[in-house]
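Researcher: Hi, I'm a grad student and pretty new to this. My advisor asked me to get structures for two proteins we've been looking at. I'm not sure of the right format, so I'll just paste the first sequence and hope you can take it from there.
Model: That works fine. Here's the first sequence with its structure tokens right after it:
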Amino acid sequence: MKQRNTARALSLLLALLLILAACGESAENTDAPADVGDTDVQAPSAETPVEEETEPDIYVNLPGADYGGADFPLLQYEETSAATSTICVEELNGEAVNDAIYQRTLNVNDRLGINIVFDKTSLADVTSTMSASIPAGDDYYQAFWQHSTTAVTNFLQKGYVLNLNDISGFDFTAPWWNQNAMDSIRLNDRTYMAFGDINYYLFDFQSIIICNKPFVMNHGMTDPYELVQEGEWTIDKFLSMVKEGAEDLNGNGQLGDAEDRIGFTGYKTATELGFTHAADVELFSRGADGSIVYDGVSEKYFDVVSRYSEVLGDKTLAEHNGDFAGRFRSDLTLFTSFTVGGLSVMRDTEFDYYVLPFPKYDAEQEKYISFITNQIQPMMIPITVADTERAGVVLENLCAESHKLVRECYFEELVNYKYVRDAEAISILRMLYASDARFEIGHIYNWGGIEGTITAGLTGEAGTFVSAMTRIEKIMAKSMQKTMDAISN
């Protein structure tokens, strides 16, 4: 999208008015999404003077510059999964999110005297383009977005991307960056993949569980929203409901046929990894110097895997991969694990459903933890970029302007209306977005094929899980070292 810094004051004003009407001016200085509810607040009396509180301007320290209209090309791939967000918008079309993204880019162009150019292509084309241009020393693309696991194998482990901590202009403590998600997969003290409001795939690919609401009501089960609210949405409660959700619908006296209802469906190597994550158990920790340390399988970790394995490994109760979304829409599943973006394909479901976080370990666990799948697109800067200071300034401004104009539009337009149908579900999503959302290190880097070993344990192979982890430990250590060697060059 070529956007020249010309005098288009009228069109800019009209676009901004459309955006403000759609999203509300309150989004401008908001660090987090507005809470749902609290709509019956009384207005102050006219006799009582109201002191206006001035909120601090979180944008006051944004770096500025004038780059004389220079091009600033960026490359992103078109997400083929169910998702809605993008950094690339070519024109106004009257939709709130689209127009907010468009206006965001124009604002940054004007502020910095820059011409941001977006190219959007396939995942394979991003790989081939950047794999050719970086070794050739080509300084054309100033940043690119790629599938996180592909980014690791094709770029990070080849030393093709810069440590973003070394680039002036970035302030990763600012609210428009998701520092928690970035910290969860940083390598020692280095940041190679950034996530923030410049790209909302981070929200689209957070994991949730949806639940058949009529089934719950017709079978006298406890309302899951009440369980979540009371902190009682736990592994044991979830698994007991999975067992109760299996029904012999074809009347042949056995469970697990294609025509029968089952308790759970999901996708093994994506959302189902959220079960261990949500129980707040990890296989890796951080050393005193920030280095990644493999801790082995703790007693609690094995307990989580074993409890899930007993139920999710039972083919009469659960099914993995396959047409899990179709089974749910056909009223043949009680629970299905999903990404938030995946809800966009569930809008034609004829019955209502709950939107839930993954279960806590037990009621004593303080918070629900949101798991982000590896389909997210991290932002990376190739080592060929000559003017890294300019790259930092432009991308920082793009992310901040997205926080100002786009963030609340995304929540209101997509989450509140297009993804879910009830206020409780909106509250759940907003809670997850404000939670300790993070990646699973093994899911992103997959050292020694650890991802498959974990999911196998969760879905029926708990009895051999510890021995399987022991078998891959040496391979995993070599793979980890390969990654560390790449970033030390």
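Researcher: Oh nice, that was easy. Here's the second one.
Model: And its structure:
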Amino acid sequence: MDLISLLPELLKGFTHFTPGNAVMIGVGAVLIYLAIAKEYEPVLLLPIGFGCILANIPLAGMTAAEGMMGVLYRAGISSELFPLLIFIGVGAMIDFSPLLAQPRMVLLGAAGQFGIFGTLILAILLGFPLNQAASIGVIGAIDGPTSIFVATKLAPELLAPIAVAAYSYMSLIPIIQPPLMKLLTTKKERMIRMEYAPRPISQRTLVVFPIAITVVVGLLVPEATPLISMLMLGNLLKVSGVVDRLNKAAQNEIINIATLFLGLVVGATMTASAFLNWDTGKIMLLGLLAFALDTVAGLLFGKLMSFLSGGKINPLIGAAGISAFPMAGRLAARVAQDEDFENFILMHAMGANTAGQLGSVMAGGILLAIVSHLV
């Protein structure tokens, strides 16, 4: 058999290569560029981009049921394992002391979920069925694991655009939120100084908190139990003070490995046939709208709290009521310091930010409960 007769076999990848594959490989390359050159959420956008490239190489077989990505999808996405492992690591990183010292920040965490439900209604009006609309709305929480967890249960066919939207907008928080902050607050409001006299939080309280939250949220919203329990388990590892190795493993090896495989598998779902359609564009726009509405609702509620307190609360902390921890809290504090370098509202913003983390999990559980009941 000569070389010429072998050419069709050697070039079969090119013969099955479509313009759609080329576009999606370009999308994967853009995600990798944003991860490396712009450092936009690199730990996830980089593996997502590479997985996207792999998914669009014809006949490679990696995304087939018996291929590596197919096996990882069943093991970590269908089983919901990867998002839950990531939540253990997130919980191990969170310090709930600012929230426990300022319980009223729970209100801002609740206000920061408004966009989820507003976008759900709009998505239904645009023709999406309830299960898909609920999954799209959760993008507004800017909480990747929660978005993936809800989408896997309600609309697995939309997993790729929902995951990409959630993590992309998370990386764009420093670009999207500041204009909204400055539009909805005055310079005088942004310069409000908030006293922080932290109440001492005992270790007993810190240990009881994750256990109590797991039980209460689990009883109120059973569908949220997997997410809240893993988040609280990670936090319990941190505050117990007796399992330092497990705490460090949760914050490093466990979350890093889960994030790597999650990113690859999400990227591997970004095939041309599944991604290049009008619905993807709608999902990206609706996700951006949900994010904006969550930020706006938090800021407006922050302004209300500022008014009711006689100007003692800086409304910027309302923008931290979304779930993107710790970026949203740090950004709110930075915007305040842009107006007054000696204005330190970081601990207040972190209280709202951790409340937003809890709020997004509960919102996701509520949506799962509603959709499961109605569908």
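Researcher: Is there anything I should tell my advisor about the second?
Model: You could mention this: The mean pLDDT is 89.
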